[in-house]
């Protein structure tokens, strides 16, 4: 049983990480196009933008549900610490996604009085992304824990670092949204996205640089992880790879390529996530609660894992099928509504 108790939390942590990555990648561009909405005041452009994600957006939210349920079922002790520590940004996130989802459907049937739903879609997208950054920053800056329980205050997550992380996530999702529009639209929408894309890329790189410097300076354990020998020899490849994909993204945007900017932007996100994992593994609540400390009883993990093993292939198959069926670019005036 000891072997199982040691192995299962690792498997569940990998499942949790996979769900988070899939959500960030798939719902990131979805939120990103909402952030860019105010920069496209023309109704025809907004219709084209909305139609470019119409077949995908609701399925993308599935990964958020999977990640939340995995944290709750497999790591209840971590869930019991993180949720009360992040009540306010979590509520902002959920309410933003609700208003955003309602706006997505209602703007089509509310025409010509749909402007309030356009605003709701944009504000919900921005606040949803910003709240995710606040949660990330609040966890990275270390949650106060005593006797495996949250020991902080309701606003303990609020700090210059968490606010900066919120802005970083907004910039990153906006870049994903811009590269998505390059890949999925034509005409004026695509051209404006190509103007915005390089600026958003530079902004994201600036935020990544600030986070990369801030965290080791503020947290000695992260500095030790990254800059001790021989770790630095291997981990130095992460920023190098990030700069490489940033160059590919920039090059693709400038040369009018469709897929390369989007794929490169995703790679930058994956490398940033990998860097965060390196900085904090094996902690779920840094630096006091590891995946083993937070794990549920092995029988509960096995029960959840059986269900996940049945559902995960279906979710992946649905995702692949939708992206395959609705491949290609969307011209002005075309849509699925």
Notable traits:
337 residues, mainly alpha, two-stranded antiparallel sheet, two-stranded antiparallel ribbon, 3% strand, globular
Number of domains: 1
The average pLDDT value, as a whole number, equals: 90
Tell me the β content: under 5%
Fraction of residues in H or I helices: over 70%
Outline type: globular
The arrangement of helices and strands along the chain is: HHHHHHHEEHHHHHHEEHH
> Spans with pLDDT under 50 lasting ≥5 residues?
none
Task: Name the structural class.
Answer: mainly alpha
The description of the largest β-sheet is: 2 strands, antiparallel
Give the distance, in angstroms, between the N- and C-terminal Cα atoms.
54 Å
* DSSP E strands, number: 4
Number of helices: 15
Going across the major beta sheet, what is the strand order? 1-2
Radius of gyration, CA atoms, in whole angstroms: 20 Å
